[in-house]
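Morning F.,

Quick status update on the modeling queue. The single chain you submitted on Monday has been processed. Sequence for confirmation:
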Amino acid sequence: MYDFLVGRDEEIVPYRARQLRNLLCDLGPSFIKAGQVLANRPDIIREDYMNELCILQDDVPPVPNQVAFSIIEEELGQPLERLFSKISSETIAAASLGQVYRATLRETGEDVAIKVQRPGIEPIIYRDLFLFRTLASFLNGISLQKLGCNAELIVDEFGEKLLEELDYTLEATNIEDFLENFKDDPTVKIPQVYKQLSGSRVLVMEWIDGIRCTDPQAIKEAGIDVEGFLTVGVSAALRQLLEFGLFHGDPHPGNIFAMRDGRIAYVDFGNVAVLSQQNKQILIDAVVHAVNEDYAEMANDFTRLGFLARGTDVAPIIPALEAIWQNSAGKGLADFNFRSVTERFSLVIRSLLTQEGICFTLKPDFKFLEVAYPYVAKRLLTDPNPALRERLIQVLFKDGAFQWKRLENLIVLAKENVSKMSSNPALKKNSSQAARSQQLESKLDLTETIKDGARMFLIDAGIRRQLILAFNEDSKLHVEELVDVYRLVEDQIDMPSVALEVLQDLPSVVRDFMLSWSDSILSDRRY
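Structure tokens below.
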């Protein structure tokens, strides 16, 4: 009965996999969505089943052209031939909620993708969600006991996002937000959206001519470095989660493409989610606690994020987290996967798991954390956000002692990130495209960090005391360590320019220092 799970020894029976796919298609769009999620889990689904379920991502039986074209004309209020000079006679892709045609705009000659919603889908979705919710109510006790999660809440979240996907005007707005976020990133391609040609059931956007991201051979033949492409993808995902707080909630292989110029392209923005500033900071906290090897606090971070239920005893989880991280580091970080951390399904975890599945499909030994850690190190060292400045201090001071080696490691990792991303790493070094690719930042810009450090040294008595102690703790002057740190950054910093900026900032620093000093005097007099 459960022969689709990894680890079964029964003979492979491809027709059963097809039966499962066909069954999901017959059951309706919500079941197709569930199949799409399973298609990206090579760790729990056997390969023959996974291959069949992948078809659900863009090759579901479409509705007839006549029906789809009438919806387009009804939604846009004009005949097709008035708006488009050409439109494909067959669907380019058909998924759970809609199908896509390729067309050419009559007015400009631009190639576009037309996404049109299946007719009468909303009542079907409501019916399916009612069935899911009823089933979840029966399973909730087992789910809470065995998995530590609420099955009803999971269905509610799934249903909420599914219903949001039915309104294509929301998706158009999501695309515009992603365009704004990645406007200065030459490694990421977001399609332009034509809002004047879109409505609640029709969406017209720029045509993306890319390579399916699960076809490593085609990617290599296009002159793209697979590991470099994955580095681009992981960096883009981390920026969505930790920088923008707006992330693609459904990044399955049908929605991600490799462009021939090495960029990663995203499509289908119906399912996106917002990560609050607080949760972004908690994710950073989790990384900081991992760096500090503070696994008890790391377990608490997962509770704060909602991956674990409130009141869960985290004591048994702490040794597991320690084993995961130390084992990952010992094996070059290749064996780490997010499923080891938690089984609690949420949109964040689903997004990470889906992209992790893509990584494993393209390159099974891809070192996910070896991309993630340098990115976080760079954010900690360069981001002026006060919350991240506070986290940096937490990393650099442990039990009151300054961690010189940790600072060196952060700088090395951050320089690695800058070096790797100074040009698109997906383009092979000797390719003509690599020579023409837009250059990103080539140095680790620590100007704001140095300015903030100088300000904190003058204004914050606690930090000043800690830093002074750092130079002479253990009854010795740490001149050698300071020289080592300087040697790491001397090629990254234009010292005269930094000094000039610090001097220009000096009046405001002195003002803040005087205000802080006067406040402390007045406070002392009150007592």
